[in-house]
């Protein structure tokens, strides 16, 4: 087990070093597909080897065999009888921030219990409705979404969240925008979201 852990650590560090060198020499999005696939593979390896007990996953019910990975930043503090999860057709209010990978930034974070939302200032941001480390209900405005109107991975994971939960979510490109460019999001991008389910407007 120790050898396996060591080999995985060496692989991840080697991948980060190689990718950093490529991105500096060839541009921010050099080898983007490969880098994002390697990033998702490294998350899957950490999950499978149970190295990080904070890392969890859900299977996408519309794309069997593909998973969205997540970590709980904060659990809902609502009483059990008031906790509620949205349905596929629910309308919800969320605080969210969408980020892309940057291996150099990620490589500087602690390996154990690595939370990427803590590096939000240094990771490429493509969307969101709050700017500081945490959402501020007095300043920031929630965004209303219909659950089934989002990319597949986001639709799936929202249905597992309770009102008041805050999760860090990793959506592989297959469950995001695939090979299509979407605004500031290049094709093959892993989507990293910091999401707080604030309210179910309509169940």
Automatic annotation (TrEMBL):
Enzyme class (EC, first level): isomerase
GO MF annotations in UniProt: peptidyl-prolyl cis-trans isomerase activity
Record-stated family: Belongs to the FKBP-type PPIase family.
InterPro entries on file: PPIase_dom_sf, PPIase_FKBP_dom
UniProt EC number: 5.2.1.8
Keyword annotations from UniProtKB, A to Z: Isomerase, Rotamase
Location of the PPIase FKBP-type domain: 89-201
Catalysis performed (reactions): [protein]-peptidylproline (omega=180) = [protein]-peptidylproline (omega=0)
Pfam families membership: FKBP_C
Domain of life: Bacteria
Name of the featured protein: Peptidyl-prolyl cis-trans isomerase
